[in-house]
Amino acid sequence: MVYLGILAFFTRNTLSIGQIQKGDKQSFSTRKSSIYKEAYLQGMVSNTLNPKTVLVYITFMPQFIHLSENVNNQLMILGLLLTGIAVSWFLFVVYLLDYVKKWLHNSLLQKVFHKATGVLLIGFGVKTAV
Fold it and tell me: 9: number of CA atoms within 13 Å, CB side?
């Protein structure tokens, strides 16, 4: 661990995924499209087959349904409302993570991160040895 800490502390540059992929632009763009499609389909299948979603819907929604009125319309409205809230929340998370991603690509922050990681690894190595 001490050796890895010293390597991390004294590293002069960082290598990002973008730098690795610059040489292979054409195949990267086609792979990127297929990766997004595969991730979307995987997420859709896992959400569709997830029993927790159905259980939450079945246990949470009936307490807001009035039996004297049209139950199907109420369920549809509440389902759409729940979907709208979930979509807006996930859009907020995506925009927040996009901002954090831009912040993390800062070279000064990466250098500080490498130094801190090196110090932590050296400390863990010394603590383990003692």
Answer: 13
* Residue 17 resides in a domain: no
Residue range 33-65, pLDDT digits in tens: 778 888 888 888 888 888 887 787 788 888 888
| Dihedral sign for Cα atoms in the order 47, 48, 49, 54 | positive
Whether residue 19 is contained in a domain is answered as: no
pLDDT tens across 100-128, in order?
888 888 878 888 888 888 899 899 889 88
Please tell me the total count of domains within the chain.
Answer: 1
Do the beta carbons of residue 115 and residue 12 sit within 8 Å? no
Angstrom distance (rounded) from CA 74 to CA 58: 13
Question: What's the pTM?
Answer: 0.53
Q: Whole-angstrom Cα distance, residue 48 to residue 58? A: 15
